[in-house]
Amino acid sequence: MGIFNGLPVPSDKTYLREELARIDESWAAARFDSLPHVVHILTSKDREGDIHVLREQSDVVEEVVDEVVHAYHGGFNKAIQNYSQILRLFSESTDKIGDLKHDLAEAKQSLGARNKQLHQLWYRSVTLRHIISLLDQIEGIAKVPSRIEKLIADKQFYAAIQVYLQSSLMLEREGLQTVGALQDVRSELTKLRGALFFKILDDLHAHLYNRGEYSSVASSINERDDEVPTTTAVAASQMSSQPLSRRTRTLKGDSQFGARGLTNGSYRTASNDEGSSFDGHDEEDSVEHDEATTDTVRNGTDSKLLSYQLPPWLSDSTPDEFIEAVRKSDDPLHVKYLQTLVQCLCMLGKVAAAGAIICQKLRPTIHEIIVSKIKAHMETTNLSKSAGSQGDRTLAAGLHFMKGQSEAYRLSKEKPQNGISNSGTHLAVSPVSPLMAPGGKAQAAAKELLDSILDTIVKIFENHVVIGELLELKASQHDINTPKSLPTDVNWNTDSEASQVTGGYTISFPLTVLQSECQQLICEILRATPEAASADAAAQTAKHAKKSSKKDKRDAPEDGLTFTFRFTDATVSISNQGADLIRQGWGRRAPNASQEGYGSAAVLPEQGIYLAASIYRPVLQFTDKITSMLPKKHSQLVNDGLLTFTENFVKDHLLPTMFVDYRKGVQQAISSPAAFRPRAHTTTTYTPTVEKGRPILQGLLAIDLLAKEVLGWAQAMPKFATDLVKYVQTFLERTFERCRASYTEAVLEKQSYMLIGRHDIEKLMRVEAASACLPSSLGHAVSHSESVGIEVELSKIFLTLPTTIKQENLIRDDNKLILLASLSDSLEYVADSIERLGQAVPCAASQAEGNSKNQAASPRNLASFADEYRKLATDCLKNLRVEMQLETVFHFQEMTNREYLEDEDAEEPDDYVISLTSQITRRDEGMAPFISGEKRNYVFGGICGVAAHASIKALADMRSINLFGVQQICRNTIALEQAMAAIPYIDGESVQQNLDRVRTYFELLNMPFEALLAFIAEHDQMFTPTEYSNLLKVNVPGRDTPPDAQSRLLEILSH
């Protein structure tokens, strides 16, 4: 029975469920009908059995019922008890309500009897309460000065101003103006207003320069050093048309500055006309907020407070709309604090005075910060050196130069294994020392120092943006120089009026001063002498206006560059109030306006004009950060700032100086007598890397170093990469002309030089299989048979020249051949280097070149120069290969028109073979250090092919040859094979095949005529018909040759 499945049956009595399942569903019907069951039993044959089954089922049901009752017994009892308790409570409530009704009826009766007396007592109590309230207010006002002093000591400036304004309002109330005891309180409040102003100004000044308790530097300990918050300008809400950054946007959006709190300047206190306590909030709750916030700041785990959490400096303040806006704001902690200080100045009506003093202190403070930053950097450097942590560590990690750059300068300092140092060459031609080179320690140190200082300046300017935006917003909406205890009307001001209202302080002023100080620091680093460096803004402006029309920066001397600032400090119009405050002593603490410098020379290993490269990128990043902070209204302020000055300096001074210096270095490198002289005392084998002694020509190695240097400058200054790449192209073009002249001087009027210029020979050499190893191989893969055919064709050309090769037509000076080998390898090295550098040159350079309007045709890129260098290197190798082939032809000319009628076995090769092999060995040993094994195989690999064809062709011109003559020729081939086998990387298989062919050919002369014909019949493709015919034409003593020998040969070959 499924309806009993949910009954609480114990696990040890699971059989009950099985028994219940057997009971018919009809027994559990809602309307049970017993008649069918009675009839069934009466008509059953086994009545006793059916009754027994029913009794068993009844027992099961009763047992299940017992279990259910047992399981729910406690619940039933508790329900009955609860019901009894509820009935008791209802009864008691009914009795109490009846008593309450009776008492209310009696009270109503008593009050109705004495209504007039109660009214009199109430009026009297109200009067006494008012008198007591006035006395409490007088007593409270008397304690206000001490309370304000305590709040000032606790840096609860906003609460102190609230107390001050509330007290001022109360002192102006009717009834308290005639109290004589309060005159002293009025005098003390006036003094406290000035003291409170100076305290707020001191704290604002400290936080402007990140020296305060809630500064962004202090609250961002765990943040990355290079993470500088940026701002984005957005449109203002309906209350203002000025753009706001994200720092003021949150308060504006949350409260619209409350329409009372921060916008219209009318401060509304929490007290009412009847008077109230100065502390209108729960002190315990405030203490909790204070402790929680203090812990957050102390731990430094987050630069922002949690949403809706009250900052600690407002813990004692009376809640108002400004505090509510701060509580809901998501701005960083330091931004909230700056907003609070500005609000305090507005409430005091001291904005103009504060702005004037901030302007007065701005330049000296920035100068002091830069000097202290340099000193701290110097102390850190000294500590690192004393701890031995400098070692071999380079300072160039912050410069994003190409990988090959550091390798190039490492080569300039290391000494190769061949004993020849490259540093002398580098120092001789480079216009800068290794310290000043791209990636040098001076460049890295300058970048690191300037990065650190500009990062600090950016964080300072971030605070000025916050202050400037708030002051501009308030100046455009209301009078902010009247204490908020007095009623004011909304005053809409123009920009010029707003500047006067803020004491001359606007966002543009700190930006100008900050960039001016940074510019002076950069001038000191570059050893440039800026004109009008005085801090007196008016004098500087006048001086600039007087001389700017006469001065041309391009005429500045190289060692003492002179130029004027492109921007100056705006003249600050200080109100009388601000001037009075400065005379009172706040301004006396400022250092002297005239500055003596920054002391950067003590930190930098070297100073000079070339440090402009390491300065450019930090200045560019600084300008990007500053631009991102500025609202759209002021975005044009950076157009003529520090970046413009730096770019003009680079364009007008650094680039011309660099071009002249490096042009002079290139000229020295390629005009030196040793520039294109192969190195002596080199290793006996070729090494592929310069570090291990690859003997690159001194001139080309110097040019490569200079090109890497110039492109290193391009990498540091991408905007000027186009000009610098053009410099490199000019230097490479001049160097290529010098290499071409050296090559021409070595091969001029020589047979090999004229042959490789022939179109047919050049075409064959290009598709020759051996040319695959050439630097500028343009050929395509050929089969072995095609390669053999090309070799045969070239050999035929060399062997069938119109004139006999003479000694004066060959390069007899081995030094010239070694020069060609060294020049080829050096050109290939420079080409590879140029190609790598071209890939690393910034894309802006190629784009700028492509968009140049002054060039009629598309400019050449570095890849084209690399191709030219490789082509010249290939010409050198081709010339060497052809030269050795012509030398072979020259020596084997002695085989013709002579008789090989020897009378004894050959023990030594012929003299011309000895001369050739000794020449091969000597030249191979001379070239071995300068070219790789593959290229040596290319240079000497064509000798055997030419020698084989020359030997076979010489048979046609021989008059006679005997058995010993054949042995002599075979001995010559063996000697040549031995000489070629001594050359590493030579293709021994090709050498053996060519010379075996010669030996086979001449050994055919030893065969009888019939045997020779049989051989020709079997190997008709081994030699050409002409070569087989020459075998029959030559006179071989002892061999019978029938008259019809040629006809029989033709008959065999024709089949």
Can you walk through the features of this model?
It is flat, with a radius of gyration of 52 Å. α18 links the parallel β1 and β2. The strands form two sheets. A two-stranded parallel sheet has the order 1-2. The chain is mainly alpha-helical and 1055 residues long.
Biggest pleated-sheet summary? 2 strands, parallel
Mean pLDDT: 75
Radius of gyration: 52 Å
Broad shape: flat
Report the portion of residues in β strands: under 5%
Please report the distance between the alpha carbons of the first and last residues: 112 Å
Q: Which spans of ≥5 residues are poorly predicted at pLDDT below 50?
A: 221-307, 389-425, 485-496, 531-595, 844-859
Helix content: 55-70%
Topology readout:
Layout: H1 15-22, H2 35-43, H3 47-113, H4 115-142, H5 144-153, H6 157-171, H7 183-208, H8 246-255, H9 283-299, H10 321-328, H11 333-348, H12 351-386, H13 403-413, H14 423-429, H15 441-475, H16 495-501, H17 508-526, E1 529-531, H18 537-547, E2 562-564, H19 576-586, H20 612-629, H21 642-671, H22 698-716, H23 721-747, H24 751-756, H25 759-767, H26 784-799, H27 814-840, H28 843-850, H29 862-892, E3 899-900, H30 911-927, H31 933-940, H32 943-954, E4 960-961, H33 963-981, H34 988-1003, H35 1009-1018, H36 1025-1033, H37 1045-1054
Parallel strand pairs: 1-2, 3-4
Helix pairs in contact: 5-6, 5-7, 6-7, 6-11, 7-11, 8-10, 11-15, 12-15, 12-17, 12-19, 13-22, 15-17, 15-20, 20-21, 21-22, 21-23, 22-23, 22-27, 23-27, 23-28, 23-29, 25-26, 26-32, 27-29, 29-30, 29-31, 29-32, 30-33, 32-34, 33-34, 35-37, 36-37
